[in-house]
Amino acid sequence: MHRVDYLTDTQERILRCIRRHIADHGQAPTMQQISAAVGMRSRASVHYQLGELEAKRAIVREPGRSRGIRLA
């Protein structure tokens, strides 16, 4: 398991949302679902935060897939 660098509160909320959604539904949430779950208005902000989570090795994204998020 990789050591995750320091996460902001927003990144922690997004990561919890992803974990919970995968546990409940067997697949990752969409950016729209993440946005609604954590109270962010902009999907662009979610996209940015997902990039930060990927850079910190908390998640792995699969380009071109709607639900292409895996936990690292």
Helix and strand layout, with pairings?
Layout lengths: L8 H17 L5 H8 L4 H13 L3 E3 L7 E3 L1
Helix pairs in contact: 1-3, 2-3
Describe what you observe in this structure.
- There is one protein chain.
- This protein has helices at residues 9-25, 31-38, 43-55; strands spanning 59-61, 69-71.
- The model has no long low-confidence stretch (mean pLDDT 92).
- Helix content is 53%, strand content 8%.
- Strand 1 and strand 2 form a beta hairpin.
- It has one domain: Arc Repressor Mutant, subunit A, CATH 1.10.10.
- The chain is mainly α.
- Strands 1-2 form a two-stranded antiparallel ribbon.
Q: Report the average pLDDT across residues.
A: 92
Q: What would the CATH topology be?
A: Arc Repressor Mutant, subunit A
DSSP strand count: 2
* DSSP helical segment count: 3
CATH class assignment:
Mainly Alpha
Instruction: Report the CATH architecture.
Output: Orthogonal Bundle
Helix content: 40-55%
Helix/strand order, N-terminal first = HHHEE
Please outline the major beta sheet: 2 strands, antiparallel
The Rg value, from CA coordinates, equals 11 Å
What is the approximate shape?
globular
Strand proportion, as a percent range, falls in: 5-15%
Structural class: mainly alpha
Key descriptive features of the protein:
single chain; 72 residues; mainly alpha; Arc Repressor Mutant, subunit A; two-stranded antiparallel sheet; 2 strands; 8% strand; globular
Short synopsis of the structure:
Helix 1 (9-25) packs across helix 3. Strand 1 and strand 2 (69-71) form a beta hairpin. With 72 residues, the protein is mainly α.
